[in-house]
Amino acid sequence: MQVKKSLVTMTCFVALGGITLPAVHAQAPVATVASDYKVKVGDTISIQVLNHPEFSLAGTRVQNDNTISYFFGPIAVSGKTVSEIGKLVTKQLVDAKQLVSPVVSVSVAAREPMTVNIYGDVRNAGKVELRDGMRLLDVLALAGGLPTDRYEFYKLVVYRPNGPLPVDVAKLYTGDIKQNITLESGDNIIIDEADPSETMVRVVGEVRSQSSVVIPRDGSILAVLNAAGGVTPAAALSEASIVRKGQTIKVDLRGILETGFVKSGVKLEAGDVLVIPLNKKVFRTNGATQKTGEIIYPDDRSLTLFQALSIAGLPAQNADLKNVRLTRKLTDGKDETTTHNVASMLKGDLTKDVAVKPDDSIFVEPKSNKKRFGLQDALWAVTTVTGLLRLFR
Description:
The chain has helices at 82-95, 136-142, 169-172, 221-227, 256-259, 305-312, 342-346, 375-392, and strands spanning 12-14, 44-49, 57-61, 67-70, 73-76, 104-110, 115-120, 126-129, 154-160, 163-167, 188-193, 200-205, 211-214, 240-244, 247-251, 273-276, 282-287, 293-296, 303-304, 319-329, 335-340, 355-356, 361-366. By secondary structure, the protein is an alpha+beta fold.
């Protein structure tokens, strides 16, 4: 007898006594599966017994208890290939003494749709359809990927009934195959941003914007200062510090704005607090200068007398620039005053320019505004007095 060959993509032929025959044409639509595919809950399988339609099933669904209902009792099929299921059906028919050498064909008629759920910090969270062999990176790509490429800032866990599977996101995206696990239907993928203490640096003190800044990959202090809007003119860069896990690390940042580097080579770490204190160093000017009183002494450089007066705004007129007085308090508490010719410095001779230190005082004597008593003034005075005497007489 000639029997039509089955159109089933993957069909199992089982017979006792070493005889294998082609199966009859399947009644139900058949799913395309690999030979090593293992049946899952929700799949529908077809069972055909050659020449015995009374023992054949066009489709039976795998129940939540991992079994299918067959004529002589349930058969546990979840996690088994169609070849293994065919042997179980054959054994049941023989044990029930219904057939001696049945020829059984098992195929997957329909597969339960496979999906995974992805939640958290991805562009398109929700349900993702899963195909055979899909790995974690495949699903993340279908979900739109992470919002940034700072993968070290994320935590990922794949939750399964038998327990959670933590994944190192940074290693996952740098090619660690162990992190790129094969997913299973029903997996729940949770992606959370790491705690700010693990990703951010806080900047406080004399910066334009006191805020938390994402830690640069290279730990650059300059990059963090720029992200905070830069430092204020009153910043004491030489007295900056980093608070790290309860410890204070002193950092001299003088020159960082010009060179971009820190002499000590210190770099920031996530969770650090960068403190830029107020510059309390001042010098004082009085007399014929545009600014008087306390003026902030630069934190990143020293000053000379000519530079200090340039900051204070030296007037071009009405100032005795040949006798500018510089007063400094000595270690014994006494004041020392020296006189300097700034007029010559204005002409380009800086050979006698001197250093100005914090707390020094500079005094520029204003010129007298009184006119000299000339001949006209004398005549006016005599005339005025004579007129007054005549009036009184």
